[in-house]
Amino acid sequence: MPIRYLFFDVGYTLVDEDAVWEARCREQADMPEARALGLTAGDIYREIEEASRQYLPQYRTVVEKYGFTQVAPFRGELETLYPEAPAVLAALSQKYSLGVIANQAKGLKERLQEWGILPYFTAVASSWEAGASKPDPTIFRLAFSLAGCAPEEAFMIGDRLDNDIAPAKALGMKTVWLRQGFGALQIPKKPEYTPDYTIDSLTELPGIFL
Q: How far is 110 from 57, CA to CA, in rounded Å?
């Protein structure tokens, strides 16, 4: 079955979250509970890295480990679009339909519009709207419904083996693992976590698909 659709994750796939996580760790470390434990921003950041390696929820794992009752917010205003994203999406959209499958807070379409890339996507499935977060197959099935395509006609492109690659493969999609952010620390632990392609930059996608 020919490939018709390319679905993208958002965080650390199209959007750089480095500044968000650095700020969040600093803010958490400044709170009384973290101070009482002698935790630095670097300590918290390293715990997030370890959670990622272990295929665990990044921030929730840290919060539960230390019993934080106050949690630093995710400051989405610090996210920045990877500079190569618009040109890559423009090129791919000439041959394929593009979509989004992402664990994101309310207002994803508005953020995609602010970044100037919403017009490239014909199907946007957000965990907020789906009422389910990856790796739950519910959000993937919502995307297929919105796109009018079968899993076998689609690729999933994302940064996490646990949230993007494994669930997409289980549904019959092909996959591209984009090693950026915390997801780059993961290692495929079973065949079902092994992507069809592995890349380190969005700029490598045209070489696969065009």
A: 26
Q: Could you write out the DSSP letters of every residue in 69-97?
A: SS-----GGG-EE-TTHHHHHHHHTTTSE
- The span from the CA of 78 to the CA of 47, in Å, is 21
| 8-state DSSP, 31 | S
Just give the CATH number of 5-16+79-209: 3.40.50.1000
Question: What count of other Cβ atoms lies within 10 Å of the Cβ of residue 87?
Answer: 12
Q: Answer yes or no: pTM beyond 0.90.
A: yes
HSE-CB of 154 using CA atoms within 13 angstroms? 31
Query: What distance in Å separates the CA atoms of residue 15 and residue 80, rounded to the nearest whole number?
Result: 6
**Domain-by-domain residue ranges, the chain?**
5-16+79-209, 18-76
pLDDT digits (tens, 9 = 90+) for 104-150: 999 999 999 999 999 999 999 999 988 999 999 999 999 999 999 99
Percentage of the chain surpassing pLDDT 90?
97
Q: How confident is the model at residue 5 (pLDDT cuts 50, 70, 90)?
A: very high
